[in-house]
Amino acid sequence: MIGEMYARAGRYARLCQLLFLFPGVVELMQHLFELHAGFYDNIAAMKAAEHAPSRMVAGHFKVIALYLTGWWAVRFYACGDNPAAARAWDPRATALFVPVMAWGLFWLVLTLDGPMLAAAAGWPARPLAIGALALSFAGLLLEPCLSAWKAAAVVGNGAIGFMRSIRLTPGSYWWSLGMSLAATMPLMIVHYALAVAALGRTPAVAITVLGFDAVVVSYIGAVMMASTYVIARRVAARAGVALLPGAADVEQFSRVAALP
Fold first, then answer.
1. Beta-carbon neighbour count of residue 127 at 10 Å?
2. Rounded Cα distance, 60 and 18, in Å
3. Integer Cα distance of 152 and 147 in angstroms
4. Rounded to whole angstroms, how far apart are CA atoms 90 and 210?
5. Residue 129 · residue 119 · CB < 8 Å
6. Could you give phi then psi for residue 89, rounded to 5 degrees?
7. Which of 44, 90, 166, 175 has a CA positioned 20 to 30 A from the CA of residue 143?
8. Which of these, 236, 68, 97, lies nearest to 155 by C-alpha position?
9. Sign of CA dihedral 28, 30, 31, 37
10. What separation in angstroms does the CA of 198 have from each of 36, 39, 202, 212?
């Protein structure tokens, strides 16, 4: 399964190059802001510039770009690795994807902006740090339960909503969580290792390392969405429900996806 996720993410990178690179371009912009702020001078500078406004704004856009990868990549995987499916616009799927995007934006604001807003309001730092960590952990644990909802939404299947996705997952939960972590953690280690490798380097070396990291971030996004799709496929199959829409809708989806 892990091999399938990595291989299909590689096909997405090869066949949908501009879509694949979009999160990486935003990541590279964030790195350029970080370099300008001295973020990679040393550990102390990294900590001092952690909440620099330009870095935080770029970070928000990077997360949004990864959410959009959830639309492009999952449609690509669900339609048999068809690049036209990733590029196609589907009104029904778009409407179903809006709540998925809203859910992601809610967690983005809660985890990235919440602690800063609370700190600005004078709340104690230690409880804030513990609360932010607890929220991140809760989001990690909940994510496998929502894979079927997210995957079904982007292919236009409204029969698997938020709550039904949660109800369908328990029989596959631990497999799903383990598979998700096994697929993404090695790449996350590489991502953070590259940030450390850029510390204290000359600008030319740092930009080279961080440029490679930007590509890694794009690949992380593709693998995360491959994980979402594979988990959703298993959850739906074990529950005996269709992940793709009905036959007539699948035919329409295929026609839309086949557009040049």
1. 10
2. 20
3. 8
4. 35
5. no
6. -105, 125
7. 90
8. 97
9. positive
10. 14, 10, 9, 11
Q: Tokens in use for 169?
A: 């997952």
Residue 147 CA from chain centroid, whole number? 12
One-character DSSP codes across 54-91: HHHHHHHHHHHHHHHHHHHHHHHHHTTS-HHHHH---H
User: pLDDT tens, position by position, for the chain (260 residues)?
Assistant: 788 999 999 999 999 999 999 999 999 999 999 998 888 988 888 888 888 888 888 989 999 999 999 999 999 999 999 999 999 888 999 999 999 999 999 888 887 777 677 767 777 767 766 777 787 788 888 899 999 999 999 999 999 999 999 999 988 899 999 999 999 999 999 999 999 999 989 989 999 999 999 999 999 999 999 999 999 999 999 988 888 876 434 444 444 444 33
Q: Encode 175-196: b = buried (16+ Cβ within 10 Å), e = exposed.
A: bbbebbeebbeebeeebeebbe
Other CB atoms within a 10 A radius of the CB of residue 218 amount to 27
What is the distance between the alpha carbons of residues 88 and 66, in angstroms, rounded to a whole number? 18
* CA dist., res. 55 & res. 35, Å (int): 10
Please name the helix (run of DSSP H) or strand (run of DSSP E) that holds residue 26, with its range, or none.
helix 17-36
- Minimal CA–CA distance to 37: which of 53, 60, 24? 53
184/130 Cα distance (integer angstroms): 24
CB 175 within 8 A of CB 208: no
E strands, the chain, are none
